[in-house]
């Protein structure tokens, strides 16, 4: 292949591409030829076979249609045969056209023959059909018709058979064409694959040879160029370093590129390779020149640096020797400089003493302190003394071990070289410098030592002379200064005596003024303290005196519930007995709480008495064991009691109060301990531990429970406080127990102390005096002076139970109830403001109505059911039952739901009133014009004998169904099929209610609502949304935009729709049809509404769960339980179909707020009704519950009627 290697690159590429193109053309030729052959077979199938099959099927279908029409013709009456005759004629024409069309598409003689057979059979069938038709028209007898029809059936079967044979022939012909196409496809595919594989193999071989002939020389050239580039970059960096003064760098001589002229190809790659080889030789010569130049510059620089180093060291040393420094500081700094500058590891400087004629060490550098280290050397003694005597530098290279060691924190070593340099000034010895190093001192460093020798000698001599002069000068100045100071001190002493006399007088005046201020402040504080004490005592006395009033009704409750629980007459069910037990248990808990509050109040007011008597300690412990061992075993705890030696058998104290304190402490220990033990120990504390001023007995209650943080030790002894006071606390209780226990202990002249660590348990210790005689025996109580004389409570005469049931509420104003006649027009005014009620009563009389006045919600409901007034004027802010509750009660009753109700109140909740079915809403304060409008609205509602209802529904059938459902003799119904038609009707006349579908043909229901919103407020009409689709959360929010004027109901059943329409039209139920009465009663039946609904009760108090589940189960609701928020989330996840949740707020692990938020985060429960239950009664609780995601809010204790009302509202709406 030598000839190929010498070809130009363009020729190589041309040869490769030409070969590939040739194979591609050959492949394309075979592919196009084969596709043409396959296409010919496909054209035959498309243009002939498929149309032939379709035409044959059409012929068969027309014969079948002709046959069915002929049979119908035979069975029809003569009067109705004309239409069928037309159809028969049409089918015959279609058969003839299809046969002619088939004849034109046939291409084979066999097909022509088959078509002829079908045509012959068809003609025979049509002729037979014509004969049968003629016989029918001619009135032939039945037997003749039966025979003709049988013969015609055979002819029709012959037609079907011939048609199917024709289709079978066409299908077989199609299979032949398909097999021929498959054979052509297989042959073409074999040729194409062979040609393609050959083309790929040749292309790969050509690509390999072309790539190798081009890439190999280029790769060698690239490597050479890269080396030349790196060499150029290195020379550039070297030039930049030399320009910056850095001569430490060097350049490497690059390698020459070797090329063999004999073996190198003669194409473009070979020529490029020879050119680069020449360039690499030039580059290697340039690198050698750069290297020689760098060496020359480096030598010059080193000589210059040596001279600069010598000068710099001399100058720096001279700078250290200048200035007014102490001799010690100067020699210390000079020695440090010499060692650091010369790289010596250790050094010492000795000064010559003229008096003792020896050398004394004055400064050291890194010299290790040793006991055998000499600090003085005589002349000729040692290396230092010898250098001083000879007055020349002495160097040692082989230093013996341990001589002048260089030591660090991790080790020490002996220097390799020592130099001793004598210091001479004017040929007089000044001192010696001794230096040690790990390396040899260079000639340059020794030269520097000679220069430093002279400068250091001069500096030390000058410093000594200056020091001598300074000492003499300081001695003189000190004597002069001492005399001056003595004079100034004498003068200052006299001035201070005068100033102190003046200050004493000023201080005496200030003390007198402050004494007056303290006396005034003390009197003010005493007055305030007395006032606070009187207020506190008044409060405590009030609570203490309430003992009888609180205990008496509770005592009756406990006695009666206990009798019911025993069920002695066996006339109660098992569930009723459980109810009674729950009542009794809750009453006992309430009694305990009342006792705690009353005890605390009595202690604070000084009303609590203590009866001291002998109490046996062992008997006390036996009682405690009897009471608490069962409790501890039930909780899985150990319970130990110990009486240590030295404890007296009997002490004098109030046994009842002592037992009360210990019961509270042990109860708390069991309550706050999950596992471990509770121990009670009696011992006599030593004087250091005893907090009492007299000998005492200590009874310690220890547990292994949760412990109390150090910062809350004082908090737990405060009333109504706990270590964990959050809404998610795990332990209940009022927080009074420890406060009362400490107060009782102090009342017994003792105390209760706490030792605790969070997570490690607690120890409460009760300290009581051993001998009560030290404090006085017998009964005693803290004295308290009453603030005010006792006030007698006036007695109230209550009616008996029988009278209360029979009598109506007493009139609060002189109204017209006694003179009211049946059927007379009257208005019931439910208003607790009697002055405003009197004004309304006068206006009622002015409008020719009789007036009845109720001062509360309960009396209003009673009077409404008794008198059935024509209309009601209602306030919201009523005692006991508010206006909303009254409205719910009225509208839930079949007897009163038709009565028009108009609100006059100070609240701003028009939407809620209209939603509940009110005819109007006015906000206080009102003027006479507004009151006239109120009565006008009432009279208009009463005057209309026929109420107008507008149904907006585009489905006519649905609209007719609603018309039939809602139609009454006193209801006029108008139907609008579009939004525009509805708006035209609303503009032309006034309607009393609208039933609106959201999905209209011309506009959406939202657009209709927006247009109604633009009406004048007096013309706005109640709207009931009646839609078959589910509303999304966004749709609901958009609908609430019309809250002031529109009532939104999700009414999907006929009962609900009828109930809502009758509510807003104020229809009387008694005048309706029986079936409609039943439907309304079913819609109002609260028990039927609640039946089968799943309710989840979330509460950590099992008594509350039992009570709520009992009343809900009576309504046939399915009750599920959860003890905390986390368990509620699990219940919702695993229990499908929950309809409503009753959520307590204060629970362990996860409180109600957190649980509600977590539920709302799940899209599945975005619309699940959640009713919050809480014992709190703070103003912002409702807002906080709703903000967390609750649907509504109810306070504990739960009002059962209000709970059922809320359940109906939320389950009805859902």
From TrEMBL:
Pfam family of the protein (one): GAF_2
Reaction(s) catalysed by this chain's protein: ATP + protein L-histidine = ADP + protein N-phospho-L-histidine
Enzyme class, UniProt record, top EC level: transferase
Response regulatory domain ranges (all copies): 826-939, 948-1064, 1094-1211
Transmembrane intervals: 14-36, 190-210
Domain Histidine kinase: 545-772
Keywords per UniProt: Coiled coil, Kinase, Membrane, Phosphoprotein, Transferase, Transmembrane, Transmembrane helix, Two-component regulatory system
Tree of life domain: Bacteria
EC number: 2.7.13.3
Modified residues (4-aspartylphosphate): 875, 997, 1144
Molecular function in Gene Ontology: phosphorelay sensor kinase activity
Coiled coil: 469-528
Descriptive protein name: histidine kinase
Classification of source organism: Bacteria, Pseudomonadati, Thermodesulfobacteriota, Desulfuromonadia, Geobacterales
